[in-house]
Design goal:
The protein is α+β, with helices and mostly antiparallel strands. It has one domain: Aminopeptidase (3-Layer(aba) Sandwich), CATH 3.40.630.30. Helices cover about 30% and strands about 30% of the residues. The protein starts with 11 loop residues before the first strand and ends with a strand.
Length: about 180
């Protein structure tokens, strides 16, 4: 009989990566797999980022990495905020093991990271959770409540054109307002 790999909140636990990650994880995206195995632990030791592991019955089902950031906003985007650069926590990496694709685990990880960002923002008053979405994932993140960052994306498009890259293929800068409930 095949093992049941479907997850539920009761079967899922989260922990901070505090050593080399367990082997066998494959999210189907080489960039995210490489980050987990080549950079996540080093970046944690260097105080650059923190990677959270999400385990289903002891098996690594997903991971998410966060780091502090600032976000430039247009006057329209920032509303009553008087600063051009606003504090943010960045969701730098997110990967869900192939075994768990299509089961809503990514939604759970994003919700966990939003809740964590709200809790972590109390001492520093962080306003946004940001991320760089692959163009094919923009709609998925929009359904989670993220909106594009106009100013940051304009900067990226100019940079892409200047360096002869196709702007349609560059990541889309997005933000979630932590005051939203």
């Amino acid at each position: 009989m095949a093992q049941d790999h479907r997850w539920t909140a009761e079967r899922l636990t989260s922990t901070v990566l505090k050593g080399p990650p367990p082997t066998g994880f494959d999210c189907g995206r080489e960039e995210q797999n490489d980050f987990l195995y080549s950079h996540a632990w080093i970046d944690y030791r260097e105080y650059v980022s923190t990677t959270y592991l999400f385990l289903a019955e002891g098996r690594l089902a997903a991971y998410a990495t966060v780091l502090w950031n600032s976000l430039p906003l247009t006057r329209r985007e920032r509303g009553s905020i008087r600063y051009k650069y606003v504090s943010a926590l960045k969701l730098g990496q997110l990967g869900v093991d192939r075994t768990f694709h299509g089961q809503g685990l990514g939604n759970h990880v994003v919700a966990f990271m939003i809740d964590s960002a709200r809790a972590d923002s109390a001492p520093a008053r962080c306003r946004y959770l940001t991320l760089d979405a692959r163009p094919d994932l923009v709609d998925w993140y929009a359904r989670q409540g993220f909106v594009p960052n106009e100013l940051r994306q304009q900067e990226r498009i100019r940079d892409a054109i200047e360096h002869h890259r196709d702007p349609a293929t560059i990541p889309v800068s997005m933000r979630f307002d932590l005051r939203t409930f």
